[in-house]
Specification:
It is a single chain. The protein is of the alpha/beta class. It folds into two domains: about 160 residues, VC0802-like (2-Layer Sandwich); about 160 residues, 3-Layer(aba) Sandwich (Rossmann fold). It contains ten helices and 15 strands. The chain has an eight-stranded mixed β-sheet with strand order 2-3-1-4-8-7-5-6. It starts with a strand and ends with a strand.
Length: about 375
């Protein structure tokens, strides 16, 4: 029987996720705010977790029912087939994420506790309930938490949907990014920017403010055919009711050998520490020989032979930089691109209206959030 699946995605990127899933021969897909619904087998779960560059996690729906009160919630939770998803450990460890909206049940801690009681009744062993971790952190979690089953409970107008997270740690934790600069960009968002800019691996790429290198490394891994999840594990591989480990092994076996990037991928930054971090990340990502990373100021950046794509995540003036100084920086961005990147395409992730200071023919392609901040992806082309 096909599994009811849901790829969680940062709001504003649903169309990119649906297109990526279609390219993985998964579907039909239905977009919803914050995600894409589809159905498939355990092999599809493995393929999407391994190859999706933009999804945050892949959920498997395990139950949907009305829960106007705690007795109904507990009773339904106890009927779900938890033995298919929770490894046989004593005690089993679970993390429960709860959202409740316009429902009679609204106390998230109480909701989590009733679900856990239902799990214990079904399994005959009381689970250990762990607090949700910080998904924004890049550091690996401890072994006990890594082995915990992550459960998502959403109650909307007394209708409860229960899902199990097949990914485990969020998919933006690729496994290669241990060294970070200030205000780093999530790899999933970096990959989404590349897709939104319609970048193809045979097009030269330049990030003149690359920080710890997230954009250039995501581009290089894609160009070399390295799957986004190739350096990490996934929760579904340990599910007792599925041959998850075998499905993951088959998906990995179908990955072609890594090839060299077909076009130049260049990143530079004035911060020596950021470039040192980028080089360390590139080595861990297996693409050190496929990117050029250099400590250079914006005015001294050296684009490869083009034209190609200039793509970057300049400071917004919140965590890095001051608003007054940033107007001068964005004006300099425009000056440098007009001088050195004539005919190149441009994609910038910017805060406020700072991009207008570039004095380039740019337009707002989509509005997103990065680290809780409202940002705009602007695109255009430098006049030849």
């Amino acid at each position: 029987m096909p599994l009811d699946l849901f790829a969680v995605i940062q709001p504003g990127l649903e169309d990119l996720c649906a297109a990526e899933l279609a390219g993985l021969d998964v579907g039909p897909c239905v977009t919803h705010p914050g995600g894409v619904a589809f159905s498939g087998e355990i092999g599809d779960v493995a393929r999407v977790n391994l190859h999706s560059s933009v999804a945050t996690r892949v959920l498997v729906r395990v139950g949907e029912f009305r829960a106007p009160g705690f007795p109904e919630l507990h009773a339904h939770a106890a009927r779900l087939a938890w033995e298919r998803f929770i490894p046989d450990a004593r005690p089993p460890r679970v993390v429960v994420h709860v959202t409740a909206h316009k429902s009679r049940l609204y106390h998230t801690v109480g909701i989590a506790e009733r679900v856990v009681r239902g799990i214990g009744e079904r399994l005959g062993a009381a689970p250990e309930l762990l607090a949700p971790e910080d998904d924004d952190a890049d550091a690996a979690v401890d072994e006990g938490r890594a082995q915990a089953t992550r459960i998502h409970v959403r109650i909307e107008r007394d209708r409860c949907t229960v899902s199990v997270d097949s990914s485990g740690e969020p998919l933006h934790r690729r496994g290669y990014r241990l060294s970070l600069a200030r205000a780093p960009l999530r790899p999933t968002l970096a990959a989404a920017l590349l897709r939104a800019a319609a970048w193809a691996p045979d097009e030269p790429l330049l990030d003149p403010m690359c920080g710890s290198g997230t954009i250039v490394l995501e581009a290089a891994r894609r160009a070399c055919g390295r799957p986004p999840g190739g350096d990490r594990g996934f929760a579904f591989a340990a599910w007792p009711g599925f041959a998850g480990a075998d499905a993951l092994a088959r998906a990995r076996a179908q990955v072609a050998s890594a090839a060299a990037a077909p076009a130049a991928i260049v990143g530079s930054d004035r911060d020596a520490g950021a470039i040192e971090a980028a080089r360390a990340n590139a080595r861990r990502a297996g693409v050190a020989g496929d990117v050029t990373l250099a400590q250079r100021s914006l005015s001294a950046c050296e684009p490869p032979t083009g034209p190609g794509l200039v793509i970057s995540n300049p400071p917004y003036g919140v965590r890095v930089g001051k608003p007054g100084q940033l107007r001068d920086l964005y004006a300099q961005i425009g000056h440098v691109l007009r001088d050195r990147c004539r005919g190149w395409r441009v994609a910038l992730l910017c805060g406020d209206e700072l991009w207008r200071c570039c004095e380039l023919p740019l337009r707002v392609a989509r509005t997103l959030r990065n680290g809780g901040l409202a940002v705009q992806l602007v695109q255009g082309r430098v006049p030849a």
